[in-house]
Amino acid sequence: MQTDRFDLVVLGGGPAGYVAAIRAAQLGMKVACVDENSQFGGTCLRVGCIPSKALLESSHLYHEARHGFAEHGLRVSDVQLDLAQMMQRKEKIVAALTGGIDMLFSKNNVVGVRGRGKLRDVNTIEVYEGTEPTQRLQADKILLALGSKPASLPSIEEDGVFIGNSTMALSFDKVPERLVVIGGGYIGLELGSVWNRLGSEVIVLEAFDRILTGIDGEVAQLAHRMFRKQGLQIHTSTMVESAVRDGDHCLVKVKDGEAIACDRVLLSTGRVPTTSGIGLEEAGVERDHRGFVSVDAHFRTSVPDIFAIGDCIGGAMLAHKAMEEGMVCVEQIGGVPSHVNYGVIPAVVYTHPEIATVGKTEEQLKAEGIAYQKGICPFGANGRARTLGEVDGRVKILADSETDRVLGVHIIGARAGDLIAEAAAAMEFGASSEDIARTCHAHPTLSEAVHEAALAVENRAIHTV
Fold this sequence. Notes:
Number of strands: 22
Oligomer: single chain
């Protein structure tokens, strides 16, 4: 068996792994990155973030052509859906981005290894194709970037065709007449929105008393109303007892309610770490009771020369958080001072309108007893939002009552995912709401809504009442 030696071997080629591998190579390390899939990029690029956003964009344009263009004076008749072409576009985007990682590896002298990697000991990874190891990699240090997978439920009989997770829902060959989404988090709502726009009757079943748990409550309430207006049927405080295939249909049973017949079922109840079958036990790497790899503040596991980052260590399961951890981890290994500011990790829900958030929610501030002031600007007061026809939504800024330091920013509205970057940058540098208010924003832009909300913190809003 061939044996190759490296300074660092990264196990996992998703956002955490491939970014860490490239950054480590830039720091002068000899690096290999191992992934079992034919394409690097992990869940995010292959069957997650990127394909779902491609379908969200395509389905939004389809919906606008049918229902929104007339308001702009654009008369379009006989708009037809070519689902196969929509899926083909999605796959083309995925191929371009995953192929780009191979190019980046080549440019940065990262050795990409395809196969299932498994720890043999604290310094050795064996790479499997099928049941037999074909290659052995030895390294001074090993970085685990193992990622996560959709959570399953024992009462849900997944077959990957009629009942399945987000990967299945990205590749339907026809629009389901009725789709039941189990889970009212960001994945379920994004994919539910896609198929709702394309013509499905979408029913969302959420066990908690609200959708989007973890998002600021006021924003989540607004989102709930907007989604229902769009046609999503949302049922909160609803426990699903089972979901089974019944011929060419499915049957979903709920507690204290009537069973729901549908064509497809999307299970979207969170994600779990993919940390089993990797040889962690053989290497002595400890996991917690949920399967997450335990690490210290420098991403070291219980084994000094084995590190871990990304979804497999818990926290926010977000690609950009994983990328940040990847860069910081290898920089620390390479002796470069670096850290992750977990208080300023933005999150975005790519529904329409988008939802974006960074920092503390109102509920968290109240629970922690932190006095704060709030500034709000509705999108309807923004000139650019009016010209776009995107008047639904608002920007909310929460600032410390004593210091005026920005503690949290929550946006629901057009292009919220882009607008949140200003808020994250401001918070990273410890900005006050007055700092944002005194920064000149171009007119007319959506970013002026952030400016106006900052003014509103001190009751100085100009364009809102």
